[in-house]
Amino acid sequence: MTLRQTLATLALAAAMPAMAADHLLEVKANKLGAPVQSTMYGLFFEDINYAADGGLYAEKVKNRSFEFCDPLLGWQAFGRVEVKDDGPFERCPHYVVLSAPQHRETRTGLTNEGFFGIGVKKGEAYRFSVWAKAPKGNSAIRVQLIDENTMADNQTFESKKIDVGSSEWKKYTVEMKSNRTMNKAKLRIFLSSDNPVALEHVSLFPKNTFRGHENGLRQDLAQALADIHPGVLRFPGGCIVEGYNLETRYQWKNSVGPVENRPTNNNRWESTFEHRYFPDYYQSYGLGFFEFFQFAEEVGAEPLPVISCGLSCQFQNSITDPKAHVPLDQLDPYIQDALDLVEFANGDPSTPWGKVRADMGHPEPFNLKFLGVGNEQWDYDAKHSPTKQDAPVFTERLKKFSDALRAKYPYLKLIGTTGPNSEGWDFDLLQPRMKELKVDLYDEHYYRNEEWFLSHGLRYDVYDRKGPRVFAGEYACHGKGKKWNHYETSLYEAAHMTGIERNADLVHMATYAPLLAHVEGWQWRPDMVWFDNTRMFKSVSYYVQQMYAQNKGTHVLSLTMDKQPVAGQDGQDGLFASAVWDKDAQEVIVKVVNTSSQPQGITLSLAGLKNATAATTLTLQCNNMDAENTLDEPEKITPKAGTATVTPGKKASTLQDELPAKTFRLYRIK
Ligand code: AHR
Questions:
Q1: pLDDT for 305-317, tens place per residue?
Q2: If residue 544 lies in a helix (H) or strand (E), which one and from where to where?
Q3: Do the Cβ atoms of 22 and 575 come closer than 8 Å?
């Protein structure tokens, strides 16, 4: 070979990617392991980032009952508008009276700004409704959808008149249509008579809601959540369960019954971060406990409500402040709320709370099986307690709830918590206490960086199997210095979830957090699904969750490399993997994540899977670690379907593949 030929050969070799070294992953397809719980992958809903009002809850009018601290927040009033507080709904007493303006050429009315505008879609119908009365005889209003930013002659693109003839409060409804799609329309109401009119609970709903419920959910967002195929729905939070004080805690009883009479509550995320402050963030409770139960039922998820244990947010309150936390001897009403909740969900319509449910249209029970007591609470040891003494503030309250709930509803599975951290003194203190208290599951929260996700692949392999089961109730990979939904973090979540799946005997539920975020109204990111007033997109983390939830199988299968779990350990070249059997489809499902920057060759040896011939794949792959889906490019990164060749064998079938760098691939082998 001439020197020139030798150099050319060397150059070619350098340009070609090296053949990836092969990794033998051995799956025991002939030995079923623990069942994968039907609850395994689910959803955690909290009203953060305008996830409820302005988000999943389809109502378009902000402050529809004039109950915000400033009763006209969200409204622009003009002419003669008076706020009164002796309205027909005792828990929402405010309303407005519009009276004739001073001159016939001037006007009286109100404009509602919606949540960052009012989103409308071309060709869609909207139901406007209002409670009204005409105290001095026949009156009327004109209701309009307007575009304030148009250069066209006419701002109004839909207008309807409502005659209000009765001096008694009555509900009036009219259908409105939009001839355009826009995010920032407004709703304007003009007084259209000489006589005054009183207005209360002004509402605008799309007719097209999820499953067509009048007090319903935004179709596109609810469908996206349903498309996960969630096994469990945890609600309503999160920190809003606790409130920033006891008064603002989530009280489920305020969230049921007629929507007009559900009292408005502050949303603690209004003011949590000064650098993302939203003074108009309240909870209307239009999306309340009935609607949560109904949604869970409709998407096939087990409902998992969380109730206040009498501690308001421990981050925001000193434990020595008696006003922030209910004294132990005054816990009874809180415990009663928990007992009543079970009756609301499961009780016969002849019981007081069962009747409330039945009157709302659901006489059948909701079959509640799980209940979370407290959100992210913790105890103190002497070293960390402000009182310098052991202060079991959470567990002593939990015990009281547990005693009462177990006595009355022994079938209920109770969920405790290990607090806000996945490790450290507070976690170490609480984990054994959850065992002592015999909770059925405890809720773990971890928002951690890339390094944590890559180095904790064996987290659940070493847990005590004799204690409670685990609910990974809030987790997400938060990129160091990059807290957005970029591809790399979602890939590491996929890697971590192989450990959840491998340990399905222990981990019975897992829910990514948070779930929903308005692009103009978020306080916390990353989040699973983002939206504005007319569009939405699914983050890459959404697709990771969906790939797991839709392919969770029924039983764990052992998958090892050199007899070790594949969890990104030394010598495993950044590979993470798990396997399950799907007894309904009679398929082996293998999930492999290559977190390294090199392609990795793999051979799946499937012992006991005789003469398998076909495999389908789903692959999540992207070369740009910082890439993410957006409203404008919602499908930039999505899983792609493919196939793989299987070599049938009499005792074991095998599948060989080369997994590109930074790739999550799922195989279904028949
Ligand atoms: O998911 C956002 C918040 O994170 C939750 O409200 C809380 O439980 C945790 O601190």
A1: 999 999 999 999 9
A2: helix 540-549
A3: no
**Position in ligand 1 atom list of the atom nearest CA 524:** 2
Task: Count how many Cα atoms sit within 13 Å of the Cα of residue 484 in the half-sphere of its side chain.
Answer: 11
State whether the beta carbon of 473 lies less than 6 angstroms from ligand 1. Answer: no
The answer to whether the beta carbons of residues 367 and 263 sit under 8 Å apart is no
pLDDT given for residue 435 in this prediction: 98
Alpha helices, DSSP H, located in 288-370: 289-299, 332-346, 352-359
Q: How confident is the model at residue 322 (pLDDT cuts 50, 70, 90)?
A: confident
Residue 571: partners with Cβ closer than 8 Å, 6 or more residues away: 562
Provide the pLDDT confidence category of residue 386 given band limits of 50, 70 and 90. Answer: confident
Amino acid (1-letter code) at residue 66: F
Catalytic residue at 158? Answer: no
pLDDT for residue 14 is more than 60: no
Q: Give the phi and the psi of residue 465 in degrees, each rounded to 5.
A: -85, -5
- pLDDT for 15 beyond 50: no
DSSP track, 117-156: BEEE-TT-EEEEEEEEE-TTS-EEEEEEEE-TT--SS--E
Assess whether the C-beta atom of 48 lies below 6 angstroms from ligand 1: yes
Are residues 311 and 321 in contact, defined by beta-carbon separation less than 8 angstroms?
A: no
Nearest one of 154, 179, 174, 152 to 163, comparing CA atoms? 174
Cα of 597 vs its chain's centroid, Å: 32
Give yes or no for residue 512 CB within 6 A of ligand 1: no
Residue 16 clears pLDDT 50, i.e. is over it: no
Give the closest residue to 526 by CA, choosing from 472, 452, 457, 447.
447
- Six-digit token string for 173: 């409804």
Asked if residue 370 has pLDDT above 70, the reply is yes
For the full predicted model, state whether its pTM sits above 0.85.
Answer: yes
Closest to 529 in 3D by CA, of 515, 547, 549 = 515
Angle separating helix axes 219-226 and 289-299, nearest 10 degrees: 50
Residue 357 tokens, joined: 């449910």
Nearest 5°: CA angle at 393, between 422 and 249?
85
Test site for ligand 1: of 312, 445, 483, most ligand atoms within 8 A of the Cβ: 445
